[in-house]
Specification:
By secondary structure, the protein is α+β, with helices and mostly antiparallel strands. About 35% of the residues lie in helices and about 35% in strands. A 4-stranded mixed β-sheet has the order 1-3-4-2. InterPro entries: UPF0145_dom_sf, UPF0145_YbjQ-like.
Length: about 100
């Protein structure tokens, strides 16, 4: 399935708009990851634990988005928007939300 942030695909006119589809994942930041991220912030460098958790959440949200579009019989998802939000008590969780429009060519 084609997934794109653009609203059109060159040479592929949209025949039917099937509706908005979403993928949402919320991950909690555990205390050990927080501790190592804080240490890394002090000495510099990138936090691999957070990057991996964020990458995993984004990939899972994309899978959900694609599954919802596939269930509608879509050929593609256009106009995709990816958002990250801190949620929960004291910002203890991260939400990855992806939306787009499922279409048939």
């Amino acid at each position: 399935m084609i997934i794109t942030t653009t609203t059109t695909l060159e040479g592929r006119p949209v025949r039917e708009y099937l509706g908005i589809v979403t993928g949402e994942v919320i991950i909690g930041a555990n205390i050990f990851r927080d501790l190592f991220a804080n240490i890394r912030d002090i000495v510099g460098g990138r936090s691999g634990a957070y990057q991996n958790a964020l990458r995993g959440a984004r990939e899972e949200a994309l899978r959900e988005l694609e599954e919802e579009a596939a269930s509608l019989g879509a050929d593609a998802i256009i106009g995709v928007d990816l958002d990250y939000e801190v949620v929960g008590d004291k910002g203890s969780m991260l939400m990855v939300s992806i939306t787009g429009t499922a279409v048939r060519f």
